Amino acid sequence: MGRKWNNIKEKKASKDANTSRVYAKFGREIFVAAKQGEPDPESNQALKVVLERAKTYSVPKNIIDRAIEKAKGGSDETFDELRYEGFGPNGSMVIVDTLTNNVNRTAADVRAAFNKNGGNMGVNGSVAYMFDATAVIGLEGRTADDALEILMEADVDVRDILEEEDAVIVYAEPEQFHAVQSAFKEAGVEEFTVAELTMLAQNEVELAEDANVQFEKLIDALEELDDVRQVYHNVDLGE
């Protein structure tokens, strides 16, 4: 798979260490998920996914509780989930998932980020067909063989299991997200280093150094937008 999930997590944690932006984004995402169904993760699978992911980013409990209470309170605030697709330097591919209460603002901001950083927006479907929706679960303290045995005993099928540095990363179909986590929890796993529903590129590309620098600026510009939830791409950014 080649995604180097531990390195990606470390980069995100470093970038977000001195800002509350990531917490604000999670607060919005939790509110929307809780409002769309029951504000209980045991009966609301969408909310459960968001909360599992929030744990891996160490989102404070008060942020989570506040968002759920806001949903319980019947707030009439509404958000649209929108996806934008585009191209970075040298034809690299980017998908941007957003959660917004102002579609015009978000579209303009995303387009500006592309245009100012060597990219351009594409039409719907111009990029997404080169990506696969994937559940990614990471854990420490186990080997790939351990993980495989646990999943086989639980009769859970996955796409792939890899060892990356000191962690095991499991790639599965999105609908297997909870089954994979449940199998590991039953086996005594209490924390996950990664818990994501993501879009993985079918093929990664490498860019020349100057293009790579520009591409990273594009990704940073997109991720810094308040309305952006997730950014996916097909570039191997290395270590």
UniProtKB/TrEMBL annotation:
Q: Name one GO biological process term.
A: regulation of DNA-templated transcription
Family annotation (SUPFAM superfamilies): YebC-like
**Name of this chain's protein:** Probable transcriptional regulatory protein GCM10007140_33300
Domain (TACO1/YebC-like N-terminal) spans 3-74
Q: Which organism is it from?
A: Priestia taiwanensis
**A Pfam family this protein belongs to?**
TACO1_YebC_N
**Location of the TACO1/YebC-like second and third domain:** 80-235
Keywords noted in UniProt: Cytoplasm, DNA-binding, Transcription, Transcription regulation
Q: Name one GO molecular function term.
A: DNA binding
